[in-house]
Amino acid sequence: SISDDEKTTLKNELKIKIKNMFFHKIGGVLVLNTDYLLVSKFLNLSYVTIYGSYMMVFQVVTVLMSSFVNAITASVGNFLINQNDDEVTSIAKQFNTVFIALATFISLNMYFLVNDFITNWIGEKFILGNGIVILMLVNVFISVIRIPCDIFKNATGFFGDVYYPLLEGGSNLFFSALLAFYIGLPGIIIGTIISNVLITLIAKPLYLYGKMFGRFNALKKYLSFVLKPLIFSFVIFAVFYFAREQIIFFKASNWFDFMSKLTIVSLVSMIIVFAVFYADANFRSFVKRILRVVF
User: Fold this and answer.
1) Coiled-coil annotation: which residues (predicted)?
2) Is the pLDDT assigned to residue 27 strictly greater than 70?
């Protein structure tokens, strides 16, 4: 049986974790709603509708990814319990590589398809410029590649980075408001990118991997997880961007054309992303792991 002292310790630990999770949720809500508030403050109401339409499309990805995270967190937690550092490092590399590949695939498809979707959905007058769409997709990309960190944080229970979500929301508000004053909507999105890079891509992973592998190993481990797959990703983006005029992706003016374009873009981007990332041993290991489970 559990002694009174052990019960007290468990209760205190549970209270701390609940409090920390609460701060994470509050920070998440703050980040999500800051941009909407700033768009309505610095721009006219038509931009709120246009920006909101794009965000609705992009948030479908976020919802699907959140469902996936919730589904596998317990399994990852059970796996980590009985593994040594080398095995944990291996699975962390695989997860980061696969989610960077997935983020690349999603971003490419969104780039070539989102304006056509908006046109068919609510009309061509609600289309944003190419540069603004790219900026928004940077945040979509970050929202996907952050998932391995969220999975491992939830699985290990390391919620001690309690002030990071609030700092993320505060920095997002500061940078977005400052830049919105000078350059409008692009400034709001760039402010969110800055906040995401500083907190989501740097501070949070370094905290988590510091807890998992030791503070002095955190940066080295993190770079070993993401550097190579990010290079692969940027090479793919560069090829598609500079070849976009030569690649025949017709304008889909109706839903039938859109579905045809969706099929073509998805197949082409999937083949290219898979072919490039298959050169990475961590990606190959993950694919083989999935195939063993399925077959």
Assistant:
1) none
2) no
